[in-house]
Amino acid sequence: MTKVFTSWSGGKDCCLALNRALARGMDVRYLANTVSADGQRSCSHGMSAEVIRTQAKALGIPIVQQPTTGDNYRAEFVKMLQAFKQEGIEGGVFGDIDFNAHRDWIEGVCQETGMTPYLPLWLEDQRKLMEEFIDAGFIAVVVAIKAELLGHEMLGQIVDRSFLASLGKDITPCGEAGEYHTLVIDGPIFKKRLEITASQKVTRGDHHFLEILGTKLKAKSAAAGRAVTA
Q: Which domains are present in the chain?
């Protein structure tokens, strides 16, 4: 069984990649999440690092949160992979779909640390990927959007087929150009459901964000909620 880590932002793409890795029998030892130098926010979408830790508890997979800055990001990422390597981890799972520059970066850091990169979603049809994610029973909440493309009313929405249908033709289905980002709160590989108990909508720079102020873990239930109150 191949021992791997999964590069983790908390969103739908990395979650779908994780799901596929588990389905293929990979032994996922860690979620690998980079955070700000003070450890307070995830580097990916500005999400609270604590929220990502709670999400990892919901999944039942240990998480490593590596502090970084813009200047030392690569070096700290490599350090994290080297530590994984010392534990016998052989590769990393990444949720990238079609951004070639980032694939080159991934392959570079993996080569430097003797890791094998796995990109299970690479170059697949984005709409089909989203339909797979939704049909599998995952529930994701919109937590960040580009203000010039989407209105703040999209924040907190559940990503379902109605959401997909509401996206304009200039929005990629997976938001691969950064149009929107998500937080996965439940799904078939979750041990518990992550419930958002308090949040507010804020604007920073050219993005609107759902600032999550409170969460709790709940036992799994057959019926899933269809909305998040901001």
A: 3-118 (3.40.50.620), 128-218 (3.90.1490.10)
